[in-house]
């Protein structure tokens, strides 16, 4: 019987995180982002970015977590990254103080599609919530592509809702709309069932 769990990312995980990101984007975003953009993403460049995020986070509240599927062998199957909300979490034209110090921002929450529907996303999200609660965050935000129904459905099913903010990313002269979702961080530990 397979089991899954979440743990903090380690320096040696960076390459596997990059592989998961690339594989997931190429499947999940193939109808959202231009194909040549997805085809030209450099896995080694992504791995260097993840290595820096894991080994040299900007603060103690910046975290990268990985989901592990454990059967006869263990496999990294997903990851999540978050930290205090910064300018990247703001909507265009939103004042710098629109998101208070008590707001966490999800920058990534991905589970490789072949490992989907096994609880890994829920475990990653629950682990992030526990870290946010411990760090004193009262709210969290996340941007999702408007056309990414799977992510939006997953987040709204766990209590997230759009906060009215939107933006469009310029990807190779193509504007790709995103919506921002938010959720209150519970003050008590999250019960796992």
UniProtKB/TrEMBL annotation:
Q: Keyword set for this entry?
A: Acyltransferase, Transferase
Q: Please list the residue ranges annotated as the N-acetyltransferase domain.
A: 4-182
Question: What is the name listed in the Swiss-Prot or TrEMBL entry for this protein?
Answer: Acetyltransferase (GNAT) family protein
GO molecular-function annotation terms? acyltransferase activity, transferring groups other than amino-acyl groups
């Amino acid at each position: 019987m397979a089991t899954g769990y979440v743990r903090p990312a380690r320096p040696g995980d960076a390459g596997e995180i990059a592989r998961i990101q690339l594989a997931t984007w190429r499947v999940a975003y193939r109808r959202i982002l231009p194909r040549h953009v997805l085809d030209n993403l450099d896995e080694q460049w992504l791995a260097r970015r993840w290595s820096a995020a894991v080994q040299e986070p900007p603060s103690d509240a910046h975290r990268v977590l990985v989901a592990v599927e454990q059967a006869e062998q263990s496999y990294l199957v997903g990851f999540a990254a978050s930290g205090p909300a910064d300018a990247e979490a703001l909507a265009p034209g939103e004042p710098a103080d629109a998101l208070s110090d008590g707001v966490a921002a999800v920058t990534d929450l991905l589970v490789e599609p072949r490992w989907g529907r096994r609880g890994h996303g829920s475990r990653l999200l629950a682990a992030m919530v526990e870290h946010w609660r411990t760090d004193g965050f009262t709210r969290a935000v996340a941007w999702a592509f408007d056309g990414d129904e799977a992510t939006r459905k997953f987040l709204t099913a766990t209590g997230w809702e759009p906060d009215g903010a939107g933006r469009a990313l310029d990807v190779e002269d193509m504007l790709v709309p995103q919506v921002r979702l938010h959720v209150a961080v519970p003050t008590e530990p999250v019960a796992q069932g």
